[in-house]
């Protein structure tokens, strides 16, 4: 009777262990997404403000975005190009730096490498996704391209290149996300989709909804394009995860399954996002 009970309890212990791992993935990766999205947001907007200030342009940063107190006569070509085109380039450079940091850490144990992967993806999204959204809505980057007298057909080509680049980045990110699991059980054939769902899809959905609601409540509108574009970037991951059959994992010996420091960091960054959107910062 005793051996029989032991056999029945073993699968139960395995199931609980797996569910705990999956729950920790959801919590940690959501914290990674929120933190990385907020950091990319602040890099993009802070660089825009700083560039405007170098031209002595009074600037307001609020939930409605960044507004410039400048007349048409003062809105010179050099100013428009600098203010509108340099921030996406800064984010593009940042995404490359974060990708290099991820590459440096990818063979190390621990889920923290997934944070650098999210930093890379969100920075690339603010560079590429914002460009596509601005061209589509005739704002932001579009104004810089117009000041450079870039033909509309060329602008469309730039948007298409950005979209293709996002899809390629997303496709290439499928394997790194699986590598970040640090547990063969999480990415076994029958478990792969659940891992991708809890590590990629849910963090993006929950994080995007939170940021969107803050912007919408604060200003009555939100930059919907930036949330759709990161979703577009992640789509190839959902379609390609099953094709990766040989994954070499680094065994993680750390006992903690919830990274509390990232929970705290995500809370701080999201709180700063809320404060900025519900106040009017004058520069």
UniProtKB/TrEMBL annotation:
Transmembrane segments: 21-44, 85-102, 114-133, 153-174, 195-218, 224-245, 257-278
Protein name (record): Uncharacterized protein
Source organism: Flexibacter flexilis DSM 6793
Keywords: Membrane, Transmembrane, Transmembrane helix
Highest taxon in the source lineage: Bacteria
